[in-house]
Design a protein that fits this description.
Structural class: mainly beta
Number of helices: 1
Number of strands: 13
Largest sheet: 13 strands, mixed
Strand content: 35-45%
Shape: globular
Helix content: under 10%
Distance between the termini: 61 Å
Length: 245
């Protein structure tokens, strides 16, 4: 067998392996495009999801889309209340690749989880929330007119417009480059922060489009997403649906 033929065979195997991780029908993962949200009273954010209200809902596994993170799992829970929406992420990890030490930084360039909320399909404007293992956040509104992204940060970001968030780790310390087994992120997004988006006070039967993501940099860049996107996390037409119970 020639060296050229061997190289071709290895290339084919690599492509097939990559496709097996980016396919929506990954074994063990739900192909559902709808996530039903249970209603809950407001509760305290701890970072580890210890509040009893989280027992009202099940974990949603987030499929891995790229090879480097193949041994790590990601899952999320979500609830909503009269005042806002709650999220809880559980991320298996080996190292906290996170050095940024302030909010409103480019958190997606290091380990982070992200939520995208598109509340009104008549307008190409949506909300993005990112949080790092070190508990730094990035909340922004995004206008996405055919791929032309314009981002806005909240002004006078305090009082009842401000998120509540916390993170926790297992198997290590919460510090840059620490070896860990799991990190969790728990956060609350008040509806008032979503202004001026439309349809931001959900009732039973309300539907929002949404997606969940994770990025990790232990060994190259690994990506997880609830709904598969082709080139960018900002492909809002591919988002799944949150159905408020």
């Amino acid at each position: 067998m020639t060296i050229r033929l061997i190289c071709i065979l290895f290339s084919i195997i690599a492509v097939l392996s990559a496709n097996s991780y980016s396919d929506k029908s990954l074994s063990g993962y739900s192909n559902s495009k709808i996530l039903e949200l249970k209603k809950s009273p407001d509760f305290t954010i701890t970072g580890n999801g210890s509040d009893k209200n989280w027992t009202k809902t099940e974990w949603l596994d987030i499929p891995l889309r790229t090879l480097p993170g193949k041994s790590l799992t990601t899952k999320v829970k979500a609830l909503y209340s009269q005042t806002g929406i709650y999220f809880l992420f559980n991320c298996q990890d080996k190292k906290l690749t996170a050095t940024m030490n302030a909010d409103f930084m480019d958190l997606w360039k290091e380990d982070a989880v992200e939520v995208f909320l598109w509340t009104d399909q008549d307008s190409p404007v949506y909300f993005e929330y990112e949080i790092s293992p070190l508990n730094h956040e990035l909340p922004i509104l995004i206008s996405n007119n055919k791929g032309d992204l314009v981002r806005w940060q909240p002004f006078h970001y305090d009082a009842d417009r401000k998120t509540r968030h916390a993170t926790a780790v297992q198997g290590g310390e919460m510090k840059s480059n620490a070896n860990v087994a799991v990190w969790t992120a728990e956060f609350f997004i008040p509806y008032k922060l979503l202004r001026p988006l439309n349809n931001i006070q959900p009732q039973s039967g309300t539907r929002w489009r949404a997606n969940f993501y994770r990025v990790d940099y232990d060994n190259g860049e690994a990506n997880w997403s609830w709904q598969l996107t082709a080139k960018s996390f900002h492909e809002y037409e591919t988002f799944g649906t949150l159905l408020f119970d």
